């Protein structure tokens, strides 16, 4: 039988790691090969992949059925909501059977202003569609292909796009003629996906240092050689990284230099011949700023220890130190983002763990500006949901936003900020008989050990669950970097939900769902709150008959993979199966090595273990350092060989140590994609195949492989 295949046993090459007089022995350090070419390492990874394939071979038919179900829900030939930009509608098109998108545009037939009722003409009499770039053509010959940026020049004649063909997130930028597709000049190599036009003849871009830290911002003149580009700024502090964005008005570019708790901003006036950076906000430890522009003011979101949920201020272009408060700091409301328009501002906030969007009318340009009054909040129908800004047009009164919930497919709305009218421009088509009314979404709160209330978002199919403790469950968590893991839609998830699963997202501390303090209470020397919150959510769900420990499966990726590793060491009895995707599990060793990408920038998130207090705290939860001789549930671990965020060797070492020490016969599978990075494979159907594989593993672990849904 397939299950009788022998698991790979990694050889032991003991290496002593000494810090603060403490000795750790790492028998599997040899699995780290920065060149990713060592024959022994690659042979071990291939052996793990072969073992995984052998063990899963008895559910390959189930995996294929799940994949067919998932793919069957997708309308393969489709377009997204066209964006009216200048003289064109821009949009992306997908084609039947094709992995990647086409970037298209179509001329706007009239000069009418943009309204919520604007519809791109189609049919035989409509202006002809033009395919600017077909990713399917560009991807030929590559195992991995991803475009990280696609930027149209202000005059709509050129396009700059950033291409990654390995998954290492090191991009090459090409400039093409938007009509002919002919390359303009030579490509820019070794850069991030942060690129912006500075007029029609210049690009601004960012490069990285040897540890892949974005550290230099450059000005490139079209037609010139990259070697002659001007460096506008070099950030030498290795805890800071650079970012780049354009104002909605397209008059200014903003260069942000930021660490995990401090950021400051330079601006570049695109209209000036002499393109140099000027300071907008100063470098002050503990103060975080982001900025945009309208009329004769810069608008700045500013966070500090005192104003931890941020305030919104404005300052004149000619006197950036003279700030006026537009929205004050509030303890219960966190300002997340904002979008500017000619006459309006849309503010994205969080209140009680849910997203909130409020639109304010601004005084005429040139008039004095004061505290914002009389805002209009948008209404959303689901008890838990996700809402995010979409690109909108500055010279309009139309706000475009993206909405979904765990039962509402991804939807794009245009909202008239004058009248308050919303128009649905696009809802993601879900085939296969999907009916949102069959599903229930709920919001529940678990009580943590310290009394904190932890929100959870819950999805299930109302005609399939019993809610008596017998239902299978997949519980997902993340809880890091102040990232909000809002309850959004994912079509593949219904291959579990339609088999009677309850799906839950635990909005644990370390994320940003409940405000800045929520994040600060789940990082550094409070990181264990993230793990205990997740355990407390699991115990709440068991106690309240949503599931039992015999049917509770858990899932997390990246920093969520750290969460998986930590809770599996702490409470292996609580779960039946776990999926740890590209997991950050070798915390202490990685954070002690500043030559590893991201380490220096991460010290303000996890702590700097060169300091004794942080070393011992991190060692007390680091998954690799806490694997012990105990029984573990069924575990699937994944990795990408070219991953620049979590080195493949971390999950490889974690699995090797688990194989050595665990005292059970449960599944332990490791799947390392040899031509992928942090986000795994790049094609849209390839990603669905990974979902199908993961779900087949979960069903196998639960003994549900014979319970095939006909849905």
Automatic annotation (TrEMBL):
It is an enzyme of class 3 (hydrolase). Residues 487-704 form the Peptidase S9 prolyl oligopeptidase catalytic domain. InterPro entries: AB_hydrolase_fold, Pept_S9A_N, Peptidase_S9_cat, Peptidase_S9A, Serine_Peptidase_S9A. It comes from the Eukaryota. Keywords: Hydrolase, Protease, Serine protease. GO terms for biological process: proteolysis. The keyword Hydrolase applies. Residues 7-425 form the Peptidase S9A N-terminal domain. GO terms for cellular component: cytosol. Its EC number is 3.4.21.-. It catalyses: Hydrolysis of Pro-|-Xaa >> Ala-|-Xaa in oligopeptides. GO terms for molecular function: serine-type endopeptidase activity. Belongs to the peptidase S9A family. PANTHER family: PROLYL ENDOPEPTIDASE-LIKE, PROTEASE FAMILY S9A OLIGOPEPTIDASE. Serine peptidase whose precise substrate specificity remains unclear. Does not cleave peptides after a arginine or lysine residue. Regulates trans-Golgi network morphology and sorting by regulating the membrane binding of the AP-1 complex. May play a role in the regulation of synaptic vesicle exocytosis. This is Prolyl endopeptidase. It comes from Miscanthus lutarioriparius.
């Amino acid at each position: 039988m397939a299950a009788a295949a022998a698991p790979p046993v990694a050889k032991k090459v003991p290496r002593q790691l000494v810090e603060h007089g403490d000795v750790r022995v790492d028998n599997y350090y040899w699995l780290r090969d920065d060149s990713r070419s060592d024959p022994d390492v690659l042979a071990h990874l291939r052996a793990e992949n072969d073992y995984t394939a052998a063990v899963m071979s008895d559910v390959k038919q189930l995996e294929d059925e799940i994949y067919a179900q998932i793919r069957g829900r997708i309308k393969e030939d489709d377009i997204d909501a066209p964006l009216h930009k200048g003289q064109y509608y821009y949009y992306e098109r997908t084609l039947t059977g094709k992995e990647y998108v086409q970037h298209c545009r179509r001329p706007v037939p009239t000069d009418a202003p943009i309204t919520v009722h604007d519809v791109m003409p189609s049919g035989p009499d409509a202006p002809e569609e033009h395919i600017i770039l077909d990713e399917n053509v560009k991807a030929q010959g590559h195992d991995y292909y991803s475009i990280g940026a696609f930027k149209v020049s202000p005059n709509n004649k050129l396009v700059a796009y950033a291409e990654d063909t390995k998954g290492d997130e090191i991009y090459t930028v090409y400039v093409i003629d938007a009509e002919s597709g002919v390359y303009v000049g030579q490509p820019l190599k070794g850069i991030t996906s942060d690129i912006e036009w500075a007029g029609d003849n210049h690009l601004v871009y960012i490069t990285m240092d040897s540890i892949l830290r974005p550290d230099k911002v450059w000005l490139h003149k079209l037609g010139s050689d990259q070697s002659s580009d001007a460096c506008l700024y070099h950030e030498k502090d290795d805890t800071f990284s650079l970012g780049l964005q354009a104002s909605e008005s397209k008059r200014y570019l903003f260069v942000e230099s930021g660490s995990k708790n401090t950021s400051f901003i330079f601006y570049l006036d695109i209209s000036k011949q002499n393109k140099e950076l000027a300071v907008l906000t100063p470098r002050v430890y503990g103060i975080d700023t982001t900025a945009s522009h309208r009329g004769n003011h810069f608008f700045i979101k500013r966070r500090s220890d005192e104003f931890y949920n941020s305030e919104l201020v404005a300052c004149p272009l000619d006197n950036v130190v003279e700030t006026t408060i537009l929205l004050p700091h509030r303890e219960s409301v966190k300002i997340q983002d904002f979008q500017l328009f000619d006459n309006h501002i849309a503010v994205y906030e969080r209140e009680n763990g849910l997203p909130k969007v409020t639109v304010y009318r601004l005084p005429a340009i040139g008039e004095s500006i004061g505290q914002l009054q009389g805002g209009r909040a948008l209404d959303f129908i689901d008890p838990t949901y996700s809402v995010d800004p979409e690109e909108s047009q500055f010279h309009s009164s139309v706000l475009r936003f993206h909405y979904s919930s765990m039962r509402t497919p991804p939807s794009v709305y245009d909202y008239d900020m004058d009248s308050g009218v919303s128009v649905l421009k696009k809802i993601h088509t879900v085939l296969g008989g999907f009916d949102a009314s069959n599903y229930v979404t709920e919001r529940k709160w678990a009580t943590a050990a310290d009394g904190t209330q932890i929100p959870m978002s819950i999805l299930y199919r109302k005609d399939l669950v019993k809610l008596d403790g017998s239902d299978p469950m997949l519980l997902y968590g993340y809880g890091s970097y102040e990232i909000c893991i809002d309850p959004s839609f994912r079509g593949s998830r219904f291959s579990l939900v339609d088999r009677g699963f309850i799906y839950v997202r635990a909005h644990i501390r370390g994320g940003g769902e409940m405000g800045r303090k929520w994040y600060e209470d789940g990082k550094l020397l409070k990181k264990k709150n993230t793990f205990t919150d997740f355990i407390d959510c699991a115990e709440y769900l068991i106690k309240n008959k949503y599931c039992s420990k015999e049917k509770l499966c858990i899932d997390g990726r990246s920093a969520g993979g750290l969460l998986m590793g930590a809770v599996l060491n702490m409470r292996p009895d609580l779960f039946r199966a776990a999926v740890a995707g590209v997991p950050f599990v070798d915390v202490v060793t990685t954070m002690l090595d500043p030559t590893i990408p991201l380490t220096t920038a991460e010290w303000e998130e996890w702590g700097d273990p060169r300091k004794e207090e942080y070393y011992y705290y991190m060692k007390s939860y680091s998954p690799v350092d806490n694997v012990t001789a105990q029984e573990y549930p069924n575990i699937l671990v994944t990795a990408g060989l070219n991953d620049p965020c979590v080195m493949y060797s971390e999950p490889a070492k974690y699995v090797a140590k688990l194989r050595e020490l665990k005292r059970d016969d449960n599944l332990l599978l490791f799947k390392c994609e040899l031509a992928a990075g942090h986000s795994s494979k790049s094609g849209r159907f390839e990603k669905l195949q990974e979902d199908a594989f993961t779900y087949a593993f979960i069903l196998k672990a639960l003994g549900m492989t014979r319970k095939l849904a006909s849905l």
